[in-house]
Design goal:
globular; 4-stranded mixed β-sheet; about 40% helix
């Protein structure tokens, strides 16, 4: 059984942590001469004021300064506090991230384990009638993006390429380039898919940001795009889960904040 990030953290925090005082006590920092108020001051300066929205924490009316914290704040503080417990969690998370970047089989197994823990039903990839009809009309490789029952964004591709038995997807890359024309923001999305025989598929599409909010939401919420590659007879060749790196996810989130500013500016003109 694969240990998920959530399970890793629960090994050290079996019960929910809801306040800064609870977290400090659990991290056993008192013995290191890193006193609570000093730790809390650093948390305010480096975490609460910079990385977390104010809806994620609230000052409580306790005699001692104490904050209610959301799960997001809890995770941020766990990953930044100088505690042996946090050191073990950080090492475990780094190991998981490194394997995700280099081992597609592990990435798939981890996602399946997370889905199982959350009760999310496994989705069986299939070619839609719309995609098949489009392929029959053009006779060329065609693709479409869909949000399926697992609430993830899927890219389904149908191709007449002569796939060999056992051929798999080796790597997938997505590139998002934000543009603006006449006040309308859009992304040029480039996709490259490499097979195990080094054959490469390349696609480019345009996402108009105001029309594709559900796609962006699915990507940022799950951090993954599932690519399903089909033969022209609709038989599945392989599926591959493309994971956004933390830096790519942050860049996309910042770009979407810029998009909101552009769209709000258009409304006030």
């Amino acid at each position: 059984m694969i240990i998920t990030p959530e399970q890793l953290i629960k090994q050290y925090f079996p019960e929910p942590i809801e306040t800064t005082r609870e977290l400090y006590n659990r991290l056993e920092l008192e013995g290191s001469n890193y006193h609570y108020l000093d730790w809390l001051k650093d948390a305010e300066q480096h975490c609460l004021s910079k990385f977390v929205k104010e809806v994620d924490y609230k000052l409580l009316p306790d005699e001692e300064k104490n904050y209610w914290i959301s799960q997001r704040v809890f995770l941020t503080l766990v990953q930044s506090s100088p505690s042996p417990i946090c050191d073990q969690i950080r090492l475990g998370l780094i190991s998981i991230v490194n394997r995700l970047a280099t081992d597609p089989k592990f990435a798939r197994q981890l996602r399946e384990q997370i889905d199982q823990d959350k009760g999310i039903k496994k989705v069986i990839p299939k070619v839609s009638r719309k995609l098949k009809a489009k392929y029959n009309e053009t006779g060329q490789e065609e693709f479409e993006f869909l949000i399926r029952e697992d609430n993830r964004l899927h890219m389904d591709i149908i191709s007449g390429y002569n796939f060999q038995p056992g051929q798999k997807i080796k790597n997938v890359m997505f590139s998002f380039q934000l543009n603006e024309e006449n006040g309308i923001p859009y992304h040029i999305v480039d996709i490259k898919i490499a097979l195990t025989n080094d054959h490469t598929f390349s696609f480019q599409t345009t996402w108009y940001c105001s029309e594709e909010r559900q796609r962006y939401g699915a990507i940022l919420r799950n951090g993954v795009i599932k690519v399903n590659l089909f033969e022209d007879n609709k038989k599945l060749v392989d599926s591959y889960e493309y994971y956004l790196s933390p830096s790519n996810a942050n860049n996309l989130e910042k770009e979407l904040e810029k998009v909101i500013s552009i769209l709000m500016g258009n409304k006030t003109e």
